[in-house]
């Protein structure tokens, strides 16, 4: 279980980074505001998931 969570940490962080980058690219190109809002919602959700995964990994390491 611990190794699975530890493998998920980089993926969770990478997912947040990719969505953030997509949002920045959309904003720089003057893209649709609806797309920007959708990407922001995805980023916030993925940040929540990343925090849960990281905290779980920290908790498992302390056991």
TrEMBL record:
All residue ranges annotated as the HIG1 domain in the record: 1-63
The keyword Transmembrane belongs to this UniProt entry's keyword annotation: yes
PROSITE patterns hit by this protein: HIG1
Keywords, sorted A to Z: Membrane, Transmembrane, Transmembrane helix
Name of the protein in its database record: HIG1 domain-containing protein
Transmembrane segment boundaries: 7-28, 40-61
Species in which this protein is naturally found: Prosthecodimorpha hirschii
Keyword Ribonucleoprotein: no
Pfam families attached to this UniProt entry: HIG_1_N
Superkingdom of origin organism: Bacteria
């Amino acid at each position: 279980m611990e190794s699975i969570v530890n493998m998920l940490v980089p993926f969770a962080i990478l997912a947040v980074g990719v969505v953030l980058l997509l949002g920045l690219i959309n904003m720089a190109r003057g893209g649709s505001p609806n797309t920007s809002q959708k990407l922001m919602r995805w980023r916030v959700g993925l940040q929540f998931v990343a925090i849960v995964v990281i905290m779980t990994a920290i908790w498992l390491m302390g056991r």
